[in-house]
């Protein structure tokens, strides 16, 4: 089956290309903020919902003004794609799939999108509009399929990336007979019905002291000074180290589970509600349960696997996985227990994973 797939690579632009990219980031940001302000005022004042055609006409007017004539110095494709992205953001908002679009900041991650009319790939080199030199890309893995668009981005630590959107043919993996249930936790990130436990990285806990020192150092610098910008980059690098390590761990674990199992059963946790608990919020956010679930979902779709969801109110940790007896209530402090009916000894988390496994298969 063919699926849209992104291939992201690190980019090392020349000084001249950095200037062009910086100009494009700035123009895209100005266009987004200007038209977002205009659309918001029109809707607040007149109740008018502005569409893509209206914003495109408005952009043409803005580019003709002397104050904004410098918008013509960058690729017009990047500016038009910004309008399309904003139109999609408003569509998601009105259909209650996302929050109201925000204004873009210079200090946040920057990006712009180009369709295939504004870039070309020749002999493994990528040329973008307004630049005569190819971009120096670190090809860390082969790109599959033909790209229809690229997104060039810069994170807060001043690292540059390019992401190719391709339509790739993904072959389903061989059908297996093995199935598994997974219980997510904080002491152990994931516990399987096979008795395997995966320890969490706890990257935020590992770097929190270093991050706090860097943030205090940044707070002591004068705003909009070069020293503050250096401190900001240092803070951003620590955040990136945490995020990159966490993402690497989640990808490796989710791929392992997808490769080894045909059916994966999980609790349908209300993670957004759980994270409102101020005592556990930092630990739940650090564990990234939502991202782990997201990765399992799309990889299962790609490779012909099945994800089943179990009701979060299902008492998986209270029921004996051997005989099904519920017995007395077992508080969270009880980590091991023996069933009073059949005498089976249980590890609380492994027993819960086995019950999730059974309930997940029953859903099928």
Q: How does this model look, in words?
A:
With 364 residues, this protein is α+β, with helices and mostly antiparallel strands. It is 43% helix and 20% strand. It is built from 9 helices and 14 strands. A 5-stranded antiparallel sheet has the order 2-6-7-1-5. Strand 8 and strand 9 form a beta hairpin. The chain is elongated, with a radius of gyration of 25 Å. 22% of the residues are buried.
Helix-strand blueprint:
Elements: E1 2-11, H1 15-46, H2 52-64, H3 76-94, E2 110-115, E3 119-122, E4 125-128, E5 137-138, E6 147-154, E7 160-169, E8 179-184, E9 190-192, E10 197-198, H4 203-219, H5 226-260, E11 263-267, H6 271-274, H7 281-287, H8 289-303, E12 306-310, E13 336-338, E14 345-347, H9 348-363
Parallel strand pairs: 8-11, 11-12
Antiparallel strand pairs: 1-5, 1-7, 2-6, 3-4, 6-7, 8-9, 9-10, 13-14
Rg of Cα set? 25 Å
Question: What strand order characterises the main sheet?
Answer: 2-6-7-1-5
Main sheet properties:
5 strands, antiparallel
- Helices and strands: which structural class? alpha+beta
Mean pLDDT: 92
Count the DSSP helices.
9
Low-confidence stretches: none
Overall helicity:
40-55%
The proportion of strand residues reads 15-25%
